[in-house]
Design a protein that fits this description.
This protein has about 260 residues and is of the alpha+beta class. It contains four helices and 18 strands. An eight-stranded antiparallel beta barrel has the order 1-2-3-4-5-6-7-8. The protein has an eight-stranded antiparallel β-sheet with strand order 13-12-11-18-17-16-15-14. The longest helix is centred in the N-terminal third of the chain and has 33 residues, at about 5-35. It starts with a helix and ends in a 5-residue tail after the last strand.
Length: about 260
């Protein structure tokens, strides 16, 4: 016959098991909630890794800065899909931003299902975040048919003058005013291909008829050069090895008055 002591002990064990089961259910519900919770993201926008921007500021060479660069658009709310772009050449896996308690996380998506945590996101301030171990700075590039006008925004935009004192304006929307008869410009940001041994920029009347020049910055002085083809591939009708040729333009960038 069971004693009162045995009955109390059995009840206590049952209660513990029941509480443990309830705790697990609560924990699982909490996990599922953050993975499905649709929340506004305050730091939405375009984010470019800090070391790329620092390299552009220091050396003004997209070719030199490209290696190991990262670029991502953060949507305006969680659950929405996005992608981390590596070296401006290849996209990573489809990812989404999730709000998990007091922090945000970057999760990989495959076939519309969350598969794994990629990195945690730390908000430093309005223009700086940290994703994993990389720091990112918020930029405001305009959109183009080929993506985002990053170099137009962080490197070229501004007013220049040439040796004759002519005012030349590079706009961040890809328009140029005052340089010969060119109407648009398009700097190359991806150098992982043949014929990309030097920094290059295209000028033309429209995007389908661009003439490419090599370029070099020396502080605020921009020099443009003809491109000499050293090796031409007739099978693919393209130059696979180029070097800077004759200098065609020399432009001085005017200081912005703030």
């Amino acid at each position: 016959m069971s004693t009162i002591k045995d009955i109390v002990f059995a009840f206590a064990i049952g209660l513990m098991c029941s509480c443990s089961s309830i705790d697990k259910n609560i924990e699982q519900t909490s996990v599922n909630n953050f993975k499905t919770k649709d929340t506004t993201i305050s730091f939405t926008g375009y984010w470019l890794c800090k070391d790329y921007i620092e390299s552009i500021n220091n050396f003004k060479s997209p070719k030199k800065a490209q290696y190991n660069s990262k670029f991502i658009f953060i949507p305006d709310s969680t659950i929405k899909q996005t992608m981390m772009i590596g070296n401006f050449h290849e996209g990573g896996p489809i990812v989404t931003i999730l709000s998990n308690g007091d922090h945000y996380e970057l999760w990989e998506i495959q076939e519309d299902s969350l598969t794994q945590l990629v990195d945690k996101i730390e908000i430093i301030d309005e223009t700086n975040i940290k994703i994993g171990d990389r720091y990112f700075i918020k930029i405001n590039p305009l959109k183009s048919d080929n993506g985002s006008r990053i170099l137009e925004e962080i490197l070229f935009k501004g007013t220049y003058s040439n040796e004759l004192g002519t005012s030349i304006e590079f706009k961040n929307n890809g328009q140029i005013i005052g340089l010969d008869n060119f109407k648009i410009y398009e700097p190359i940001i991806d150098y992982i291909d043949v014929g990309m041994q030097v920094d290059q920029i295209g000028f033309g009347q429209n995007k389908n008829e661009l003439e490419y020049f090599g370029f070099k910055f020396n502080k605020d002085t921009l020099a443009l050069f003809k491109l000499n083809c050293l090796t031409f591939d007739s099978a693919f009708n393209c130059c696979v090895d180029v070097q800077l040729g004759q200098q065609t333009h020399k432009l001085w960038k005017k200081k912005e008055i703030r």
